[in-house]
TrEMBL record:
Limits of the PAS domain: 6-53
Superkingdom in the source lineage: Archaea
Lineage, broadest ranks: Archaea, Methanobacteriati, Methanobacteriota, Stenosarchaea group, Halobacteria
Catalyzed reactions: ATP + protein L-histidine = ADP + protein N-phospho-L-histidine
Protein name from the UniProt record: histidine kinase
Gene3D superfamilies: 1.10.287.130, Histidine kinase-like ATPase, C-terminal domain (3.30.565.10), PAS domain (3.30.450.20)
EC number: 2.7.13.3
Amino acid sequence: MAGESGSAFSEEMVEAVGVGVAIYGGDGRYRYVNDAYADLLGTDREALVGRALWDVNPSLERERFADYWASFADGETRTAETEHEFAGTCVPVTTVTTRRSIDGTPYHFGTIRDITERRARERELERQNERLDSFAGIVSHDLRNPLGVAKAYLDIAREERESAELDMVGSALDRMEILVGDLLTLARKGVAVEDPEPVSLRGVATAAWRSVDTGEAAFEATTDRLLLASESRLQQLLENLYRNAVEHGSADGSLTVRVGPLEAGADAGAGFYVADDGPGIPAEDRDAVFAAGETTHEDGTGFGLAIVKGIAEAHGWTVELTESAAGGARFEFTGVAFEG
């Protein structure tokens, strides 16, 4: 290795790692860097070897560096996110640094990875969440307030007289209230789930079924597994699927909805499904049903399945609509983390 003893084979292996690799001496200066490390900073290896680490990593203060460097125990590894700068190039990176002693001499070994794309995704997510919060505020305040005023005046009008026209106004206002509620849910449910907890799929599925007006429909849950999720958001997801199944159920009112684990092939243990034995959804219409505002039912708002997709994505899951064994709709959720 350049600046240190070592075989050509070892250096070749380090170069093949695919990430930036460096070796620092006890004085905090580069003794070796591979091409990936130098390329990330837009320079060559020779330009870095011999330079002090604090010249490249501004977060390290030269006056305090010796104490920081000496604070590593032998074999200790530390991970950090910072920025590396060199010759006008600034790159956000994640670093992994380990201290090892070789023949009694301490060295620090480090790797770096470029996290520019991840930082960009995080900034975009922050902007999206800000827009969602703004939209939720508009929905909650600017739409609900005048809706409440309209319903109050309707109540006053009904005290004076009853009429079919006032009933129609009441039905329209009720539908607007449902629509506003769905819009608010759609705006807020897309926020990423940061701290999922173990929840019983059977327990949440049963609770969701009890909270929905399902008429004469039947329900089965065939799993006892615990999955990592936000319990409230998972229940909202299931409630929306149940309502969708009932709204599009069979003409005679008979319907069975089942919730169970995915067991076939490569998806074994990787997710769960919600299926019914209703009329199903034609293959050519399946992608469109997740779009906000899409509905084939006169009483639907068109946001139910869009909310389902948003909640799934907030968990990092993928949802796919297929056909159940009975010819109905089957929603499959993959990428699900289970406990145990």
